[in-house]
Fold:
Amino acid sequence: MITLIQEKEIQQYLLSKKLNPKLFIEIKDHFIQQISSLMEEQKSNFDEAFQDTKLSWKQELEVVNADLFSFRKITKLEKEMLQKRFRNIMLYAAVFTLLLSKFILTGSEVFMYAEIVLIGALISLLAYNIIFRKMKLYHYVQLSFHPLIIKNALAGIVLFTSVYLFYDNLAVTGSGMLKLFFLYAMAVKLQILYYRARKTSVLI
Structure:
């Protein structure tokens, strides 16, 4: 049976790993369950069971850089979850852009309406996050340095440089590329704000 003092010791150890709140609660429960099982099955005392448990979680709780374009330090376990979330965000944004691409490239009015809807949704999500204290205004400023936003900026530079160098009809081709890239970038940013509203870790 884990005492309150022992539970506090477990909690202090996990707090040092700077886990996001949801993951912290989940891993804390796993730690308590695993330590309790070791104490019961192997007749270990708390210190021995706690050390064995920490060793078994050593790889998952190793602190690493969150992303190539981030200085934030998080556990390897959280990084794996975060990178999977990032991949899903990019995939959904790409699918959304591809679904609209045919209409966007053939009709300027479709892009205008899509632009209005996306900007409106972005403002609404931002207002919701700030009003209900999901995030502060400086968090939105930090969003400009989010790994996915930086990747989009670099991809945009490469894309438009390529268009400029390899396409003769720059006005038409460049305009279409710009529209699609705008939709993709906005879809990424909207998802990041949506996850923030749900208090799901997206590195803001």
User: Anything to note?
Assistant: DSSP finds eight helices and two strands in the chain. The CA atoms of residues 23 and 111 lie 40 Å apart. The mean pLDDT is 89. The radius of gyration is 23 Å.
